[in-house]
Structure formats: C-alpha cells, structure tokens
Specification:
- Helix content is about 0%, strand content about 50%.
- It is an all-beta fold.
- Strand 4 and strand 5 form a beta hairpin.
- It is globular.
Length: about 120
Amino acid sequence: QVQFVESGGGLVQPGGSLRLSCAASGFTFSRYSMIWYRQTPGRERELVAQISPFGSSTNYADSVKGRFTISRDNTKSTVYLRMSSLKPEDTAVYYCAAAGLSDYWGQGTQVTVSS
C-alpha cells in the first residue's frame, strides 16, 4: 500500500537549518509529482513546495521562496526539503504527499523554530 515516512524534524533556533526526508513506497515514485505540506493547529494544511516527477520543475509558497529547496532521488523513492533561514512562523508538522494520491498521508515530522 502507499506509504510515506517523514523524518528530519526537530527543534532549531531562528536562522537555523534542517533537512527533511520523506521515504515513499507502494507506488511508482518516478511517475508522480511530490509535494511538501505543513500544518499548524487550527489552520488548514498549506502547500510548501512541489517538484515534478524528474525534478525539472519546482514551485514554492511565497512564504518560503529563497529559503527552502525541494529535491528528490528517484532511485531511493525519497523527496527532501532543505530549509534554511528558519523563522518561528515555519513551526508546523510537515507532511509529504504524491500529487493525485491525496488519500494517503504519513505521520508527519514536527519542526519547531524557537530560541
């Protein structure tokens, strides 16, 4: 079955960096665009970044442009999110998903930006 396992979150000071990973399984990874979302309590899930099946095209939310970088390794069925210059407002649970497979979600990984 389709599964996503996110990792790499943690507590980081403002201005710091983290790299999130999402290992996917149960589908042909290289056929799907992959998306990172984030969610905070009481708010809707927000699209953070998206990458095309072979990585030739990426899109970012305005709030993270220039600070976050999405990438993927199709040989490992893994998508990454490199986050730098982190701000307290980046605090959220981060999830990955495959475009078109919206019924499937992992457990997410918590990112907390605080001094």
